[in-house]
Amino acid sequence: MYLTTVNNFEEYQNGKLGNTSIILKNMEIKGEKVILTPIKSEEKDEFYKLATETEGSKFWYGANGITKEKFFEDWNDSYFDINSPEKGQCFWIVVNGGKIGQINYNEIDLKNKKVELDIIIGDEAETGKGYGTDALKALIKYLFDNFDINKIWIEARGNNPRAIRAYEKVGFKKEDLPSEKENFEGELVDKVGLEFLRNEFLCN
Ligand SMILES: CC(C)(COP(=O)(O)OP(=O)(O)OC[C@H]1O[C@@H](n2cnc3c(N)ncnc32)[C@H](O)[C@@H]1OP(=O)(O)O)[C@@H](O)C(=O)NCCC(=O)NCCS
Question: pLDDT higher for 179 or 11?
Fold first, then answer.
């Protein structure tokens, strides 16, 4: 894979870099309503607070949360390092200059050509305004444009119909797999996997 550093998003958008992959350098991914900016290492604590202390956090870790130590075992340094784009990356979802949430892709499975996403908007008042779907669309385009992957997938719990609705609105389709259950806050809930295939992206 050839890696090229670009500082100018317009240059990249205009396709001047051909099929080369890029390293995000001070770079923003622009949606119609939101801008995605890479989360810096020094902003990790702010991300931990978003993921554990907001209205949105109950959909990620439930009411009991997660210790900071365990959290950063999962969210390792690669997520905050723009120099290793294939290892995963976290982004702030920015609206009118303010951070309203986070969206990320995990380490890219280059062998099987697929990658998983996660998303959270912290403040309930910022949900239902189309920001989540816009962030997903922008990140999906970025990933299909820059990595040799065929599938982007995301998982929701069955008791989170808003997330499932948002993902389907973007174009994700429920995966045709036997449903799996997980214990979430003492209750067995369905895990719903949704996928977005490159073919479908090219058709739209
Ligand atoms: C899930 C999330 C990212 C979606 O982003 P968002 O900006 O709220 O989504 P949008 O406004 O683009 O779309 C939400 C859709 O769900 C619909 N919706 C809201 N509540 C719903 C419910 N209880 N049942 C079904 N649909 C619902 C909305 O009407 C809207 O659909 P519409 O545009 O057709 O009317 C955001 O709500 C969020 O971060 N929530 C908290 C954390 C979370 O759940 N993360 C995902 C974990 S898998």
Answer: 179
Instruction: State phi, psi for 53 to the nearest 5 degrees.
Output: -125, 20
Atom from ligand 1 closest to the CA of residue 60: 47
Q: Which residues does 137 contact at the CB level (< 8 Å), separation at least 6?
A: 31, 170
* Spatial distance between the Cα atoms of 97 and 30, rounded to a whole number of angstroms: 13
Q: What is the pTM of this model?
A: 0.90
What distance in angstroms lies between residue 52's CA and the mean position of ligand 1's atoms? 19
> pLDDT tens digits for 169-202?
999 999 988 778 999 988 999 999 999 999 988 8
Output the ligand 1 site: residues, CB below 6 A: 56, 59, 101, 119-121, 127-133, 156, 160-163, 165-166, 169
Cα 1 to averaged position of ligand 1 atoms, centre (Å): 36
In the chain, the domains with their CATH numbers are: 3-203 (3.40.630.30)
